Amino acid sequence: MLVVDDDETVRDVVRRYLEAGGFGVEVAGDGTEGLRLFAERKPDLVVLDVMMPGLNGLEVCRRLRQTSQVPVVLLTALGEEEDRIAGLRLGADDYVTKPFSPRELALRVASVLRRARMPSVSATVGEMTDGDLVLHPDARQATLDGAALSLTTREFDLLAFFVTHPGVAFSRVELLEKVWGWEFGDQSTVTVHVRRLREKIEADPAKPVRVATVWGVGYRYDPVRS
């Protein structure tokens, strides 16, 4: 696991809590060093501070997503909603706001890793097909018209849940709970993941065919198969 934060105190506290939880931890003091260590050590997860001098966390996240789908948990300043949304759009899996409880961060990290390593909720049904969209839950991979989709852990889980619950409208709160097991969380997280998912599976994300908005409720998946 890799922790990237320019604050030495934060790095030390996070490292100690994660190590107490049984994780092996590497630390980096800036974005450049973080990218170097990531390339060398290939960690299972990255905890990434957004506000760093030089190469900030959002740029580091963007570069990571060019080559990897490793889970990323962002550390953001309280009230910096734009940074949180930008990070989720870039493919971050979760975020914790500063000042934060190290225990909460450790729990979030464990949850993200567990979701990344375990088969999705739909794994028991085997391969799923909806027209030109095919999901392989055991491999946690999906293709559209034969081309592989680059999906984060959160995006894959959301898509798998939608495909296995066609025609049912779910609120954002229900999706937080049912897809990711969050008993609390920012509902904008769901909005951002839906937007990113549409960009990857819809021919025209502005006029979605599969992931429909149900005004006053949330979202519904409409299969295209006959």
Automatic annotation (TrEMBL):
The keyword Metal-binding does not apply. Residues 1-113 form the Response regulatory domain. Residues 125-223 form the OmpR/PhoB-type domain. Residues 125-223 bind DNA. Keywords: DNA-binding, Phosphoprotein, Transcription, Transcription regulation. InterPro entries: CheY-like_superfamily, OmpR/PhoB-type_DNA-bd, Sig_transdc_resp-reg_receiver, WalR-like, WH-like_DNA-bd_sf. PROSITE patterns: OMPR_PHOB, RESPONSE_REGULATORY. The modification 4-aspartylphosphate is found at residue 49. Pfam families: Response_reg, Trans_reg_C. CDD domains: REC_OmpR (cd17574), trans_reg_C (cd00383). The keyword Transcription regulation applies. This is Response regulator transcription factor. It comes from Amycolatopsis pigmentata.
